[in-house]
Amino acid sequence: MAFLSIIEGRKLLAVILCIGFFLLLIQPFSLAEFNNPELHWRVIETPHFLIHYHEGEEVFAQESARIAEEVYPSITSDLGYFPIPKIPIIIENISDITGGYTSLLVGKIVIQAQSDPARTSGTLSWPREVIAHELTHLVMVAALGESILPLR
């Protein structure tokens, strides 16, 4: 019986490693979308963030930079972790998608915007909700990763 469980454990480990390897392979493809040669990218630097945006998204990028700096102190102090490098936030408006995600392998936040910082969801500003949500993911995973395997 113990032999069967060892074999099953090895099979499970092999499946997990294959899935992890696949996820590492698809990450570079998602990075390629930011290299559209028709877009001219700019950067806003704040004390804690590097906001990357393309021409036409200046207003949304400025609003996002302001929001990110506003929510940073409460998220980092609540979680007890303060990331040292500046966090990249990429603002893109190249599709019909509105939302955001955190790329944990690269350590960046991507906001897919429709250039409307006044857009709301309930009583909260939509950009504020997305930025705070994604920043929480990034800080939590960074803190957990550093507690497991300190890299600094």
Could you give the topology of this structure?
Layout lengths: L1 H31 L8 E5 L3 E6 L3 H22 L7 E6 L6 E5 L4 E5 L7 E2 L2 E2 H23 L4
Parallel strand pairs: 2-3, 3-5
Antiparallel strand pairs: 1-2, 4-5, 6-7
Please characterize this protein's 3D structure.
There is one protein chain. With 152 residues, this protein is of the alpha/beta class. It has two domains: 1-35; 38-148, Neutral Protease Domain 2 (Neutral Protease, domain 2), CATH 1.10.390. 50% of the residues lie in helices and 20% in strands. It contains three helices and seven strands, in the order αββαβββββα. It has helices at 2-32, 58-79, 126-148; strands at 41-45, 49-54, 87-92, 99-103, 108-112, 120-121, 124-125. Strand 2 (49-54), helix 2 and strand 3 form a beta-alpha-beta unit. Helix 2 (58-79) packs across helix 3 (126-148).
A few lines on this structure:
The protein is 50% helix and 20% strand. It has 3 helices and 7 strands. A hairpin with a 4-residue loop joins strand 4 and strand 5 (108-112).
